[in-house]
Predict the 3D structure of the following.
Amino acid sequence: MNLKLQELVTNKRQILLQIIKLISEEDRWYSIQEISVAIQLVERSVQRYVNDLYDVVNDCNEQKNDHFCLQMKKNKGIKLIIEQKENAAVLKKFIYESDETIQILMALLFESYHSTFDYSKKEDLGSHTILNSLNKIKTFLQPLNLTVSTRDFCIVGSEAQLRIISNSIAWYLFNSDTWPNIFHQVDQSKIDSAIITMSDSLHLDIPPIQKREFTYMVIINILRYRKGKSIDFLSEWEQYVPVDNQCELYRIIESMYKSFHIYSHSEVRFVLLNLMTKSFIYDVSYLKKEIMANLLKNSADVLTTTDLFMKEFDQFYPIPLKDYDDIYFYILRGHLVGKIYKQADFNFSGHSLKNDIPLEFATYYTRASRFINKLWSISHDDFFLEVDYLIELYFLVLSFTELTSLFEQTVTLSLESDLPEICEKHIEEFICNQFKHYFNVVFTKDKMLQRPDLILTNIALNTQKSTPSLVIDYPISDRTMLEIKEVLCNFNDRKKKRSNLIINIV
């Protein structure tokens, strides 16, 4: 969501966000020259933006009661001081909130105004500026098959799609706020009490953040309904949700909605449908059985796609029995989200790795695309045409099973030392274990057969070698591990660039 929203804000704010991202990575001084190279701007322009950022930090501290500090020194550059309770995300969100286009987007999502003229008059903003922002927002919403009515000053399209984008943006921008202003029409104590009653009645143990996230979803549903924007429960969703009054989930949600004077059958079922995408529901055994029994009874397509994935994935990499249920229900829930929300390449939390995967894991991206195409050729289910969404969904399974490094470019190491063989074996195993989540590291003994990328040695020889070498000590110190990691990062980046070049040429 961060990258998506970044496309909406002004060029100046985009540059400020880039600078914040850079200088928040490490607790150190960043020179103007270093920032200039990183964001590809001349130093004079960078200095100007740094001065603007200084004012933004002060405004954020004053308005949000935060405690950031941007230090500036002529010969050192700048340094961002972040207190323990804060993080750079708070500063980024403050920049988003202060942007005119983001403010217009929020007004559209929550229908706070009746027309463009109404917004222009009340917010004292020129119509030309508003129309420019609306055009940006149209482009932003297009992948979700949503558009903007400039006359009625509202978003037009599927209500389900509109709600997922509303929830994603509201959660991303305001998840650390005590009670966002956009929710002022809903009584906080009443909604909190209703959620607690629901979770107690269903014996749910909802983690605090997930409970807060679910609360946001319910509030947005209530606000949209009060605006006369009710959900049309699609016939294709019928297979997922049990018949009314035969399901305890339905009865409890219905009771919760009645406390807000909402008696819509579709709204209740829509909340139930979204609850089925949450992991905490499946932690309660009787609810899990109830949901699965209904899906089996209706021969739900989400079961067919999940079973097919598990079967084909298991042939590629046998799934450990202890992990089978966790992976199965993760895929089931992910497939269900994809069935409900078309072209939504992010979840209700607004998280997405889509832009990182093709660059960081080019080999995985290619193989996963083939795997998904195979699933489609077997099933002919158009769901498997949602390649970008599925590539990310399945990537997290690989992360869980610790397989992601298999799709990294191989970095070959060789160990040359005067240590006993058992010590050398220990070093190799230790290094491989330390970096197995980040690099595809292999050790070679036969340098004639396979030339290593790096030689590790405990003897510093003053001789020129055609292969780079790194002197290590034994036992291996933390400093040595950091040095090895830095070298591995450099090799990996170079290999990825060569791999991406080959892919692009082909």
